[in-house]
Amino acid sequence: MDFLNIAISKGRIGKEAYNLFKEVGIGDSINLNSRKLIFKDEENKISYIYVKSSDVLTYVENGVADLGIVGKDIILENEADVYEIFDLGLGKCKFVVAGIKEQHIYCKDQVLKVATKYPNIAKKYFDKKSKKIKLIKLSGSVELAPLVGLSDVIVDLVQTGNTLKANNLQIIEEMFDISTRLVCNRISYRFKYDIIANLIQLLKGREN
Ligand code: PRP
């Protein structure tokens, strides 16, 4: 029997995916503390690859992974050619526009400097509002940008709100909610349909 190849990402989502797989009895081969990048579960015929969250879709799109566990933020930002088959209901957070407390620069009629890890999402959002912006692409620690004058606002994810609070920033606008999704390679969906359907049943079962 073929192995089912699943890409899980580093960081918070990876930990949640690991807990989820453990819960339904297929996560014992994964060890997030090791430096290994491939974990093989011979008994259940599953091979996990452990990759950067922004790369999960690349592995799935190219068929190296049949399935991937990834945030909706990454899916929206990258518009990859994969099936989004299941909302795992994990990693719930929201996209927001945030800025320095008590500063009202957002409302002024001028080009808004927006720092973000998600330029496509931010562009689409402000285009819809016909608001002129200058995008500043960052790779992390986005909250720093308004504090040091690199941007007026940020577009970023908020989960607990602790990072905003710690940096004296506030939500200016809530954009939309997101969560963690199971995505599937289009060809795998046809040729490995039965094992993929079984896995989905297993994951759905845990909710009942
Ligand atoms: C994410 C996000 C925020 C933070 C929000 O960053 O970009 O910075 O988490 O979480 P909170 O509301 O629970 O504080 P991440 O931890 O991925 O690190 P990064 O800054 O390196 O992108």
Describe the secondary-structure layout.
Elements: E1 4-9, H1 12-23, E2 38-41, E3 46-51, H2 56-61, E4 67-71, H3 72-78, E5 83-87, E6 93-100, E7 112-116, H4 119-128, E8 133-137, H5 144-147, E9 153-158, H6 162-166, E10 169-178, E11 180-184, H7 186-191, H8 193-205
Bound molecules: 1-O-pyrophosphono-5-O-phosphono-alpha-D-ribofuranose (PRP).
The site of 1-O-pyrophosphono-5-O-phosphono-alpha-D-ribofuranose has 13 residues, from strand 9 and helix 6.
Please provide a written account of the structure.
The protein is of the alpha/beta class and 208 residues long. The chain folds into 2 domains: 4-91 and 179-205, Periplasmic binding protein-like II (D-Maltodextrin-Binding Protein, domain 2), CATH 3.40.190.10; 93-177, Periplasmic binding protein-like II (D-Maltodextrin-Binding Protein, domain 2). Helix content is 30%, strand content 31%. The chain is built from 8 helices and 11 strands. The protein has helices at residues 12-23, 56-61, 72-78, 119-128, 144-147, 162-166, 186-191, 193-205; strands spanning 4-9, 38-41, 46-51, 67-71, 83-87, 93-100, 112-116, 133-137, 153-158, 169-178, 180-184. The strands form 2 sheets. The chain has a 6-stranded mixed sheet with strand order 2-3-1-4-11-5. Helix 4 (119-128) links the parallel strand 7 and strand 8. The longest helix is centred in the C-terminal third of the chain and has 13 residues, at 193-205. The two termini are 29 Å apart. The mean pLDDT is 93.
